[in-house]
Design the sequence.
């Protein structure tokens, strides 16, 4: 499967490679914003309690098999997108990157 992607990448021209890279980054930013919205709404609903999880962080870990740190960062981003004006919109629109959004979320907790 990955070999097919590598083959496609190797065949692409420079302009196509650059265009695809930018498209994928935008998808990543929009996806992270949407995941943050889902986590925040899930926490509001108490979705984590349905499966017996103690908190939404543990629910996130169980849903996507990620690390505790990744789950904590996503939850922190979810809170920041909900409480700090502009973070969620900027990430969704692609004005800021995922790493920048997570850093703003980290700063918002202090």
Sequence:
């Amino acid at each position: 499967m990955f070999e097919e992607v590598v083959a496609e990448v190797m065949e692409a021209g420079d302009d196509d490679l650059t265009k695809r890279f930018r498209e994928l980054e935008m998808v990543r930013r929009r996806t992270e914003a949407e995941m943050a919205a889902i986590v925040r709404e899930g926490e509001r609903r108490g979705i984590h309690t349905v499966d017996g999880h103690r908190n939404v962080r543990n629910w996130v870990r169980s849903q996507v098999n990620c690390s505790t740190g990744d789950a904590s960062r996503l939850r922190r981003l979810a809170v920041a997108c909900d409480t700090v004006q502009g973070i969620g919109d900027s990430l969704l629109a692609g004005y800021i990157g995922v790493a920048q959004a997570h850093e703003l979320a980290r700063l918002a907790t202090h």
Q: What stands out?
A: The mean pLDDT is 97. Residues 81 and 87 are 5 Å apart (CA to CA). The longest helix spans residues 14-45.
